[in-house]
Design goal:
single chain; binds zinc ion; alpha/beta; Nucleotidyltransferase, domain 5; binds 5'-O-[(R)-(carboxyoxy)(hydroxy)phosphoryl]adenosine; 37% helix
């Protein structure tokens, strides 16, 4: 049995968890900074790193207490090494290094995107499929399609060429004056909207399995905002993006539903093509946007292979997923030197731990 303490501070959640054998969560603590960033409509890097520094020690202590464990019960310490905001990453990394030094436990720097993939292993009923499987990671910072050929072995076959899927949700949410983060707010608003009100574009890209969402965002902006010569009355929407005036006759739920329809169509069509071309045995969906019910339902309905996703509570950032990914790294003999550095940009690819 291996028991790993994992720490995650790559963006706006200060998180610590204890995970056994990559499958069982002994504790999972998340201190969210959403309230702190909501006033800016997005994550403010300096504010994020300061908040991490203030809470990290209490969050780790709470993870140990909740699991009823001492440091002597642990086999290793894992921490998100990247990608992410460098100031935020460093808070977690330095804390983990200090702990490793003090306890003599081995240390593992983990790729955040690999963490998202392994969040699936934390569903109590998850039974993994034979490789290769296709993984679609859709979060606030990333949208990637990777063929996973073995534990820790990835081939990147596509991804976004501009905005990430979650970023598109967040930007459109801001445009419509919905609360931050935009993803859950748009999903909620869309429930009472009509998907066919607007026919927003499903962008085609040169790469067979790539996505593009910036044109979609522009199309939404054009559809809902007042054109300079339009002579329409502006609608005042609290919190809407500065400089944007929404038409007074739009129904926000209809815009949200039509936008969500277009975005999920684009994700599903590339994923469907990739799953067929690469003859994978299953599709693993992960990342914050994997919480979206429409995306889940469409993938299940339109793909001919099984589709799996994490429990709802583990779609957005958490440390358990880092502990799950670390388990498979640990088992494969991977260890990080005590002087490893944060990697703000770090693509998940075949040689993810080679350099
Ligand atoms: O994985 P995550 O917590 O952070 C990153 O690694 O980026 O993902 C956060 C993103 C945000 O953009 C948020 O709007 C989006 O996930 N999100 C959703 C939903 N819940 C969170 N997007 C669509 N539908 C949701 N239900
Ligand atoms: Zn994430």
């Amino acid at each position: 049995m291996t028991t790993i303490l994992a720490i995650e501070t790559s963006c706006d959640e200060t998180a610590a968890a204890i995970v056994t054998d990559g499958r069982t969560i002994a504790s999972n603590i998340i201190a969210s900074q959403i309230d702190l960033h909501a006033q800016y409509g997005g994550v403010f890097p300096e504010v994020a790193s300061r908040a991490h520094a203030e809470t990290i020690s209490a969050v780790v202590a709470q993870a140990m207490t909740q699991a009823d464990m001492e440091y002597t019960d642990l086999d290793a310490i894992a921490v998100t090494q990247g990608p992410g905001l460098v100031g935020s990453l460093l808070v977690g990394i330095n804390f983990a290094k200090g702990l490793a030094l003090a306890t003599g436990l081995p240390l593992l720097g983990i790729n955040h995107l690999e963490g998202h993939i392994y969040s699936l292993w934390l569903a109590p009923d998850f039974a993994d499929f034979e490789f290769p499987v296709l993984t679609l990671i859709v979060s606030g910072g990333h949208s990637e399609l990777l063929v996973m050929r073995a534990h820790g072995v990835y081939q990147r076959i596509g991804g976004t060429i501009d905005d990430a899927a979650g970023e598109a949700f967040d930007k459109v949410g801001r445009l419509l004056g919905l609360p931050f983060p935009g993803g859950p707010a748009i999903e909620k608003a869309a429930k009472s909207g009509a998907t066919e009100t607007y026919n927003f574009p499903r962008a085609k890209t040169d790469g067979a399995y790539d996505f593009s969402f910036s044109g979609l965002k522009t199309a939404v902006l054009r559809a809902v905002s007042i054109q300079p010569s339009g002579g329409r009355r502006a609608r005042r929407v609290r919190g809407a993006e500065k400089g944007t005036q929404l038409r007074d006759d739009i129904n926000i739920s209809d815009v949200a539903a039509s936008f969500q329809e277009a975005l999920t169509d684009a994700l599903v069509s590339s994923t469907e093509r990739a799953a067929r071309d690469y003859k994978v045995n299953a599709v693993y969906l992960s990342g914050g946007v994997s919480a979206n019910a429409l995306l889940r339902a469409k993938l299940r309905a339109q793909l001919s292979v099984p589709v799996r996703y994490p429990p709802l509570t583990l779609c957005t950032d958490n440390a358990s997923m880092i502990g799950a990914a670390a388990h498979f790294r640990f088992r494969a003999g991977h260890r990080s030197p005590l002087d490893f550095e944060a990697r703000a940009s770090w693509r998940l690819s075949e040689d993810v731990y080679a350099d």
